Amino acid sequence: ASEEKMHQEIFNFKGYMIEKANTVNKALDDAVTLKNPPMIHEAMRYSLLAGGKRVRPMLCIAACELVGGDISNAMPAACAVEMIHTMSLIHDDLPCMDNDDLRRGKPTNHKVFGEDVAVLAGDSLLAFAFEYVATSTTGVAPARILAAVGELAKSIGTEGLVAGQVVDLSSTGKTNVGLDQLEFIHIHKTAALLEASVVLGAILGGGSEEEIEKLRRFARCIGLLFQVVDDILDVTKSSEELGKTAGKDLVTDKVTYPKLLGLDKAREFAEKLNSDAKAQLSEFDPNKAAPLIALADYIAYREN
Amino acid sequence: GLTMTTQFDLKSYWATLIKEINQKLDEAIPVKYPQQIYEAMRYSVLAKGAKRSPPVMCVAACELFGGNRLAAFPTACALEMVHAASLIHDDLPCMDDDPSRRGQPSNHTVYGVDMAILAGDALFPLGFRHIVSHTPTELVPETQLLRVIAEIARAVGSTGMAAGQFLDLEGGPNAVDFVQEKKFGEMAECSAVCGGLLAGASDDEIDGLRRYGRAVGVLYQVVDDILKAKKGTGDENESKGKKGKSYVAVYGVEKAIEVAEDLRAKAKKELDGFKKYGDNVFPLYSFVDYAADRGFSIGEQV
């Protein structure tokens, strides 16, 4: 019997990922329906349901469950962070920004629907994320839902995604970009929303202040880790393997960790961030923390 | 209605609120690193001559039910932020392609298209964040604030103002009524409804505010179109993509005047349901006459 118990406790990450991704995909499909006018909603769904890895929703759900919440408490927020992520990709891909034709192996939103609709679809996903959290979250005290709304809002604007994109745009093509500026870009452009994903889950799952802050520090580490690994993959993998235009960072002369630190040091930095992240989870029940630990490893060792 | 509204000095009420709202908006967007995005946001939100109609209507609706205006200010500011975000995006070259707004260069004309998109993207969440962090919770229960957030998100979203903008660009000439309602009615509707929600109005009262706000918002725009047509600054000065937009262009001046009178009557009829609140309803009454008659000028007066 003890052998059977041990077997149960070995965490099946692949099964977890598949199950959670299916649940999230279903929830996203149900959340954004084909209302009038159909074309905006088609554009929203085109990018939202394009088969992303759903890392952000999974972090949100895993953090919620870690602090003792039910998946249903976090599901609207899990969908919302994916809507925000999608929205930022749609706008970042626009010709006036990064000018990308390909995303997740498919033509970008503005290539299919036009720039005007792409701008509006992004704006609509942004707005709907807030509407959805505010109206569809169940089993959570209103004060906690409100706190989640505030956290989500903070991660998008001038202290989050937008700030990162602004500095990213202004440093493209420049040769004097330092590590500080590079970290600013990634902490804001990537880590802020990953942090919000985890923190929203912790808030909505009923976590204590202390638990929420521990998970926030965990999220900050894996947020930066995510970008360091992205940069490494960009120089070591082909476009086909990545499903997006590889080597673009080099072509547009963007500053990256491998360029600044060298590939080996960049890999070392990634290792350190992963272990720093896990250290934040040491006081939680290891069985309950298994999904977040596995997600950190997944972010560190992913191939695309 | 007429004798009631003449007793109320909307201009002073409005001017006092504009001053307070401008100050709060100024404080809400301090310039930090990276500077250019904060400057782009401030350029549109703090533009000179802004009438602040959405925030003033929000405060007036809140005070109708005896609500404290301190409860309404953060939402009033948020309405102005999301409104500015919508206008910045509407002016973009890929949308209405407007190089100017209110006599000033558009946001993208000054800061570039990329920064204009990002300024809008930052102003939407800043509005929500401002409500959460600044509304005194002893004045407004959290459930009501969640309804306010949902209301604003719905108003600017894919079935609200974004839908209006989409049909303005892509819809046929028959879309004019829908476009007017969504592009111009939605913001006023949302403003009135938020004010009511913050003061704890009943669901029936919220429905009344909804119909009132929508009528006033469309009325304001129809009258704008009529005044432009009469001045002869109509179609030839409009930039591309604006052709189907106005009632006057589609239906002619006479029909537009008829529509305006209907909307004025409709808005006032809704307010009859609020008579039990006495003098508190005056600001909302005079708003209707202002939208219809433009009896005085509002905004930056030197």
Topology:
The complex is a heterodimer of chains A (304) and B (302).
Chain A: H1 2-9, H2 13-31, H3 38-48, H4 55-66, H5 71-92, E1 102-103, E2 106-107, H6 109-113, H7 115-136, H8 142-156, H9 161-171, H10 179-204, H11 209-236, H12 239-242, H13 248-251, H14 257-261, H15 263-279, H16 286-301
Antiparallel strand pairs in A: 1-2
Helix pairs in contact in A: 2-5, 3-7, 4-5, 4-10, 4-16, 5-7, 5-10, 8-10, 9-10, 10-11, 11-15, 11-16, 15-16
Chain B: H1 2-7, H2 10-28, H3 35-45, H4 53-64, H5 69-90, E1 100-101, E2 104-105, H6 107-111, H7 113-134, H8 142-156, H9 161-170, H10 176-198, H11 203-231, H12 247-251, H13 253-272, H14 282-293
Antiparallel strand pairs in B: 1-2
Describe this structure in words.
The complex is a heterodimer of chains A (304) and B (302). With 304 residues, chain A is an all-alpha fold. Chain A is built from 16 helices and two strands. Chain A has a two-stranded antiparallel ribbon with strand order 1-2. In chain A, a hairpin with a 2-residue loop joins strand 1 and strand 2 (106-107). In chain A, helix 10 (179-204) packs across helix 11. The longest helix of chain A has 28 residues, at 209-236. The termini of chain A are far apart. In chain A, 51% of the residues are buried. The mean pLDDT of chain A is 91. Chain B has 14 helices and two strands. In chain B, strands 1-2 form a two-stranded antiparallel ribbon. The longest helix of chain B is centred in the last third of the chain and has 29 residues, at 203-231. Chain B has helices at 2-7, 10-28, 35-45, 53-64, 69-90, 107-111, 113-134, 142-156, 161-170, 176-198, 203-231, 247-251, 253-272, 282-293; strands at residues 100-101, 104-105. Chain B has 302 residues and is mostly helical. Helices cover 70% and strands 1% of the residues of chain B. In chain B, helix 8 (142-156) packs antiparallel against helix 10 (176-198), helix 10 (176-198) packs across helix 11 (203-231) and helix 11 (203-231) runs antiparallel to helix 13. The chains are: A mainly alpha (304), B mainly alpha (302). The interface between A and B is large, with 53 and 53 residues.
